[in-house]
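Page 47, continued from p. 46.
Same chain as before, 338 aa.
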Amino acid sequence: MNPLRVEVTRGSLVESVHQVSAAVVTADDELVAAAGNPDLITFWRSAAKPFQAMPLIEDGVAERFGLTDDELALACASHSSEPFHLEGVDRFLAKVGVEERDLACGPHPPLSAEVARAVTRDGIVMTPRWSNCSGKHTGMLATAKHHGWPLAGYERAGHPLQDRLLDSAAHWSGLGRDQIVLGVDGCTTVCYGMPLRAMALAYARFAVAEEDAPRRLYRAMTEHPELVAGTNRLCTDLMRAWEGAIVAKVGAEGVYSAAVPSLRLGIAIKVMDGDLRSVGIALIAVLRQILERSPRYDAAEEARLASLAGHAEPVVRHTRGGVVGALRGAGELQFFRT
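Result:
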């Protein structure tokens, strides 16, 4: 066995190892490859956002408020709090007719290191719209307002909005509502615990669905990847490189989900110790192994993977900026079919 993992090197030594569990599933719920425990139950975190945004289209919310693909992408986003993200959230709030004070999410250090430095340097006081989840929360408020549900408490389990979103997560993952473990996410709202295999199935189904809601959300994410994440973020760079042929969404605590519609495959990954540095590296390693086995694999696919080299093997630096090591993917998926 050569288990899938992310290694951190320093000089000639492997200093740390982050073990990875993964599930690769078809849209017909066939497990075609795995690493570690594909049935591991863990929280989906922000990788669940497309399914929490699905009611925006299914329930007529987007039509009522005139939401564009920009707003739909932000509803699926873990954005970097860059100026264009904040401006987009402001437009989203205005279209829905709610205020920033209605957002239940709180601010946190921006996911972009550059933006985080600017916040510190300029003494900026962050407000809820700076949360990477502010687009998701605005979408939740829009759905609640559309249905005439109370805005107060919209983020909490038991609110009719959260019941509606739980139905969406259950539908796409193929689970019953009672099979999903509920928790509280970092942004204060409900998050879903389920097997990696169910997460992968949801993404596989999402990527090949023919209904309007998933088609439009898929388009919004893949045509506006800079809104889903941000500058120098893997979600953005990966979806931009594949020009709509792959969708991907990171989650906290070492979770990633993705789909390759041409292969009818969904992917779910968990870095077992939750190391967020490692999860993108693990995703690229899994994608490479899947794509290299495909008859469609060619020089163009290799070039796309090569364009992600900075994400696939980021360097480790000392405090004066010198390179002293790197992070890298290692090990193999176990494939159950040729």
